[in-house]
Amino acid sequence: MNSSVWLLLHVFIIFSARAEDISGSTSIVFTTQDRANYAFDIFSLRTSHPPDNDDEIVLTDGQSVNFNGYFPSLSSSILSLLLPNQTLTLDPTPSPPLQLLLYVTERLGYSNIYLDAYYIVDSIDFNLKRRSAFESPSRIQVPLFHPKQTDAKISMKDRPSIAGENLIYVSTHENSGVPRKSWAAVYSTNIITGENRRLTPYGIADFSPSVSPSGVWTAVASSGEKGWDGEVEELNTDIYVFKTRDGSERIKLVDHGGWPCWIDDFTLYFHRRSDDGWWSVYRASLPRLRRIRSELVVIERVTPPGLHAFTPAASPSNKSFIAVATRRPSSDFRHIELFDLVRNEFRELTRKVSPNSHHYNPFISPDSTLVGYHRCRRSSKEGTGGPLMLENLESPLNDLSLFRIDGSFPSFSPDGERIAYVGFPGVYVVNRDGSGKRQVLPGTAFSTAWDWKRRGVIYTSIGPIFAEESTDVDIVSVAVDEDKNGEMGYAPYKKLTIGGKNNAFPSPSPDGKWVVFRSGRSGYKNLYLMDAIEGEKSGLRRLTEGPWTDTMCNWSPDSEWIAFASDRDNPGGGSFAIYVIHPNGTDLKKVVHSGEDGRTNHPWFSPDGKSIVFTSDYVGVSAEPIANPHHFGPYGEIFTAKVDGSGIQRLTHNSYEDGTPSWGPTFIKPEDVVESPYSSARCLFDDCHWLGQANKNEVGNLESHHGSQVCHQVSKM
Asked: What fold does the segment set 390-680+687-716 form as a domain?
């Protein structure tokens, strides 16, 4: 490979050193809401005529999770560096033309930015039709960073773009140093020299960068210095612009806006939720002066009420239209449409060819003939790769493997050879390599924990989730190695609590004698202890007491501590911290908190009892939530810390909702994980729930409901 490209691949090695080994050879498994179904590929349609099914072409590899694309214009000198394959013609006018695509991809356990080059042969002009770009025999895929060769574990997200010789992108690899302050920042890397520069000032979070046609300016949606207030629908960002070369001359251009895009150096579009409740696209017209003056910027609403329109895209070569994603009241799906800026009317695109799929984040080719977007591939002709039971992620810690499971509330058996998890509905067990999947309990259940002494016994809660204190939820023990004849092979179970009252999150003691759990029997959710075999009928001992919620408890392997999440600092306010307490009720300590109003939940001890893994909003939100599928908590990331709360280490970097981690005693090697048991992607996930409303009142009602779910979903569990 060319030496300049090697420089680029190694450039991030300076950013961080490998973290101290705190775990031994162990594994952490966690869940990400719906992530196993994100079989995203990037597709394109022509802008010149009404589309049909033969017009949509998939541009990416049909196997990875590929999203947030950009059609770059690159000079021949840069192309010759990045595309060493001589089968590709670098002549700017070959027949057929060379196509370039820049995009974010998640593959091999980490995220990266790729540049692809390929030919799309059109049947009209060349008597041959390729249904997908990844079928091209001369296709080249070039990773622009190589995290496996560094210890930085860089996370790429948002829209990458190229300005001259510089790659402009968002990463979350640098600690903001402030709880609940996003690590998202814009960086620039020179493709030829490898020189790297941070463009976002420290202490500020920037999202959704867009480079002006001249390359001089970059616009971002920024939280400025005000930080994040916990909102997950609209981040209350403002539009800032700065010089692309070095981040200088930074100025706030627009109050209240996100996802900026330029159509020329004096006009940009952005989205915001309007006062009437509809997400709409707006235009900011800048004064034609050498230095930008925000007080002279003219703001106009572009798209009308009556539908949601957001994530705009434009092309300098054709200023008569923009592309937007929409949610119409008559549709349950997000679609890509063109909006004619002269006639003020929409032209539907993706609904004509794939009406029952969600389509995200459009972008337009430099010549304005193509509009790209990402959606979930649906069949084998669009690629392969169904959801994995266990998906390996790059871990920043020595001797710790990190996996995402296609389920919730996982837990390891004491020997580390099996994993139990919740499938909504039902409880399942798989081998630690993801094989041997078996449902052991039907119905709605949540949380799992294995008995330390009795082989094959799992504790779980059966009943509705996110429920009030008086709801019928009970704890059962399930003998997973004993089949119960006549009931579809489900394992027999024993009910341990009596009369509901929201008994949940059981965790057995290491000596196998007791179970700690959460119960709402007093009118508040507090912690109790009961006999592990006989259950509540042998009596209860109350561990915590107060008008707050104590929940999500986990017993340490050395028997010394019980960790749990609690909102006792502000009961009912939605803020949770992690506490530890001795099983005899003494020495209560708060050990991890992400700050005022923060949410830190689901603690689980390491096998040696010296550390805990948990989920938290400690690093805020990493991308505009509207640019992704629905997540109740897109702020959730996985962390570890020592039992006293020191040494907090971030494990995951994405814009999804990561949660319910479990720490097992064995090291799962990525190469040992079995292939997916599914033949194709399922594509079962929701668009943002708060986009389905048709008027301001309905939006307001949903805001209240959704905010309650987000802020209090933990307490209601």
From this structure: Neuraminidase (2.120.10)
